[in-house]
């Protein structure tokens, strides 16, 4: 089975406000069409975006690797062009979706594809629950029985050959593809839609979609990793995870060479996808010479907070033969937890040797690994 999606983005409607058609307006920092496309790119085998011919350059910029197809005067004509573009490519199932529904969820997409196991055509609908009135001149003129009434959504799903044949046979002017299918005698199953799958129509819809997206981003959970090494040199102590540990050597570095804290700092930058410690505190800059490493860790933790993340867990492994870390692990966890502003129960510090192998085994230096988890607050 090969599943394709046709995203219809050729409309010129500006009822949603602004100068641009709604598929080109910005939603959480990205064009609406890019948000819609992402939902399908992750869930189907092939995507065709049907655009207005004048929008070609803009579409190429937003979706550089996506198959584009010029639309027609009507929605129905645009869908037909998308279907013709897919003809002969081996597609067996097709989802037809309006670009103006950027909040389409992966679960709904999966439901629609699965519905075609038993149906030739399926469409998502939401049962009408509000009472319905008929109005005349701004006054209620009667109530409308809502029994059997549904609100139609997209993506509407079809086995490919029957819907292409139905479009070819249709005289045009249909409101949607369900109407085209039914005109060809195809039964269309109603599948449970999604209330969040709203269609951007009025000016208030964009901010509402933004709020729903931010709610979804609440599920943003990130893991970052960090790794660091410092060599032993002359000295009588080392700084490890914020604790001064007496030792027969020191660690060499531009700052205080706290290898564990550096690995942890890099893990936080990694989870944020914001580079690494050397980028934020260049070794070439004399102001960081001999700097206490808690400055770096505080900065990384501060960046996480500014980005709306909370640190829910950190795990550090120090790799060395000596000094022995165990007796200091409790103090290290407390020191890191205080800098991160979290409970010590969320910070782990442990150590291992490398069985006398390699540079750590020869006691030439200490290596450290760190993993952190960030959750959008
Ligand atoms: Mg370092």
Could you explain how this protein is built, in words?
This protein has helices at 32-41, 56-62, 75-86, 106-115, 160-169, 177-183, 205-217, 259-272, 277-280, 294-306, 329-340, 358-361, and strands spanning 3-9, 26-27, 30-31, 46-51, 67-70, 93-98, 121-127, 132-136, 139-144, 150-152, 156-159, 188-192, 221-233, 237-240, 243-246, 250-251, 309-319, 347-352, 365-376. The protein has 377 residues and is of the alpha/beta class. It has two domains: 3-217, Spore Coat Polysaccharide Biosynthesis Protein SpsA, Chain A (Alpha-Beta Complex); 221-376, 2-C-methyl-D-erythritol 2,4-cyclodiphosphate synthase (60s Ribosomal Protein L30, Chain: A, 2-Layer Sandwich). The protein is elongated and about 90 Å long. The protein starts with a strand and ends with a strand. The mean pLDDT is 93. The site of magnesium ion has 5 residues, from strand 13 and helix 8.
**How many domains comprise the coordinates?**
2
What would the CATH topology of the largest domain be?
Answer: Spore Coat Polysaccharide Biosynthesis Protein SpsA, Chain A
Radius of gyration: 29 Å
Proportion of residues in β-strands: 25-35%
């Amino acid at each position: 089975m090969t599943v394709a999606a046709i995203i219809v983005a050729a409309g010129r409607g500006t009822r949603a406000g602004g100068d641009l058609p709604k598929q080109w307006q910005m939603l959480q920092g990205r064009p609406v069409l890019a948000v819609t496309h992402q939902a399908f790119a992750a869930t189907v085998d092939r995507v065709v975006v049907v655009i207005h011919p004048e929008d070609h350059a803009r579409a190429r910029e937003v979706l550089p690797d996506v198959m584009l197809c010029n639309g027609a005067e009507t929605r129905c004509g645009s869908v037909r062009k998308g279907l013709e573009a897919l003809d002969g490519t081996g597609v067996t199932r097709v989802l037809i979706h309006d670009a103006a529904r950027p909040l389409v969820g992966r679960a709904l997409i999966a439901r629609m594809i699965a519905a075609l196991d038993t149906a030739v055509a399926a469409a998502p609908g939401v049962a009408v629950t509000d009472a319905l009135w008929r109005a005349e001149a701004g006054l209620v003129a009667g109530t409308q029985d809502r029994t059997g009434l549904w609100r139609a959504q997209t993506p509407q799903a079809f086995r490919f050959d029957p819907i292409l044949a139905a479009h070819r046979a249709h005289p045009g002017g249909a409101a949607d593809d369900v109407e085209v299918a039914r005109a060809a005698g195809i039964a269309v199953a109603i599948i449970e839609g999604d209330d969040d799958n709203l269609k951007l129509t009025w000016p208030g819809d964009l901010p509402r979609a933004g709020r729903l997206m931010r709610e979804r981003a609440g599920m943003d959970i990130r893991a970052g990793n960090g790794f660091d090494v410092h060599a032993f040199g002359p000295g009588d102590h080392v700084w490890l995870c914020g604790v001064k540990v007496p030792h027969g050597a020191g660690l060499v570095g531009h700052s205080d060479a706290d290898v564990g804290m550096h690995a942890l700092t890099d893990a936080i930058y990694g989870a944020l996808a914001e580079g690494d410690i050397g980028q934020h505190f260049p070794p070439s800059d004399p102001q960081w010479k001999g700097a206490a490493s808690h400055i770096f860790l505080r900065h990384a933790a501060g960046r996480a907070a500014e980005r709306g993340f909370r640190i829910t867990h950190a795990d550090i492994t120090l790799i060395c033969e000596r000094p022995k870390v165990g007796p200091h692990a409790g103090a290290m966890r407390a020191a890191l937890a205080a800098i991160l502003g979290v409970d010590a129960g969320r910070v782990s510090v442990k150590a291992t040797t490398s069985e006398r192998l390699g540079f750590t085994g020869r006691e030439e230096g200490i290596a450290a690994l760190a993993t952190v988890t960030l959750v959008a607050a």
